[in-house]
Amino acid sequence: MKRMNDILRLSTLIAVLFLGIQNLAVAQVSYMLDEAESSAFVRGTSTIHDWEMKVEQLQGSITLAEAGSINSLQKGNFQTNVESLKSDRNLMNKKTYEALKSKKHPQITVQVNSVKEVQGKLVANLVVTIAGQTQKVTDEIELKTLANQSLSVQGILDLKMTSYQVEPPVALMGTIKTDDEVKVAYHLIFKQK
Asked: What is the pLDDT of residue 26?
């Protein structure tokens, strides 16, 4: 009889644990980046003009503990191919790919470690890898839940090329020099899986 009660208690405990774990898994919500609806641009300046490169390929996903609640972010990652950065100048594209060492390090990746509200603003803690070099950075973001339950994430990430051991590109025997600082402006749309 005692053995039967022990088996019954153990079975009940296993059932409760299983249902609890199942509910935790259901509570997690995964979102995939909608590349067609998203955009990102790298902007900078040089000794003769401002410049812009469009990021033509983006991939990424985020996982939230609760749908629509960025404060419940559990993980996030984004990546692009270096050679998907495009300007309307072929020489600039070539110099950029060389500076970013695209043959050896073809991807730029961003890992989102956490998002916290700081003085009424959302701040993302990121790990950014460019040209094989990794840096921890923070970025202020704007998050909106859209009518279709998609998420909109916008921001402008300030970076220095030399922080990633990238030599700012030069052209025409050094007469045109790119500034070290660049801004990555992004508007990303995520749809629930």
From this structure: 52
